[in-house]
Design a protein that fits this description.
Arc Repressor Mutant, subunit A; alpha+beta; 110 residues; 3 strands; three-stranded antiparallel beta sheet
Length: 110
C-alpha cells in the first residue's frame, strides 16, 4: 500500500487531530502536518482544501475569515463539537486497528 493510499484513508483523522489543538489556516495546517509527522506527510492544496470543504459541509469544522497578525485576511478552520466527537470515534477505531495490525505483523513485539 502506498503512502498516498494510507494518507487518503486517514486525512480526516489527521486534520481533525491538528485542529483539536487550535484553529489553523491552510498553510499552518500543511506545515504542522509536516512537522508532527517528521516530513512523512506532505499535504498539497489539491488534497487539503477539498477535504476541509467536505468536513465543513459535514459540520466537523467551521471556516472563518479573520485577520492574521499581519492584518492579511485568512480562512481559519476550527473543529466543531461534532468534529470533536467524531475525532474521538476515529481515534478509538485507529488505535484498535493499529493494535490488530501490530498483532499480525509483529507478533513477538506486542
Amino acid at each position: 500500500m502506498s503512502r498516498r493510499e494510507l494518507l487518503k484513508g486517514s486525512t480526516e483523522t489527521l486534520l481533525l487531530s491538528l485542529l483539536a489543538s487550535g484553529p489553523k489556516y491552510g498553510y499552518q495546517i500543511v506545515k504542522e502536518m509536516e512537522r508532527r509527522s517528521q516530513g512523512y506527510f506532505s499535504f498539497r492544496e489539491g488534497t487539503l482544501y477539498p477535504a476541509l470543504h467536505r468536513m465543513e459541509r459535514a459540520g466537523l469544522v467551521e471556516g472563518r475569515w479573520e485577520p492574521s497578525p499581519s492584518g492579511q485576511m485568512r480562512r481559519y478552520y476550527y473543529i466543531t463539537e461534532k468534529g470533536r466527537k467524531y475525532l474521538d470515534t476515529l481515534q478509538r477505531e485507529w488505535l484498535a486497528f493499529a493494535r490488530a495490525v501490530s498483532l499480525v505483523i509483529l507478533p513477538e513485539q506486542v
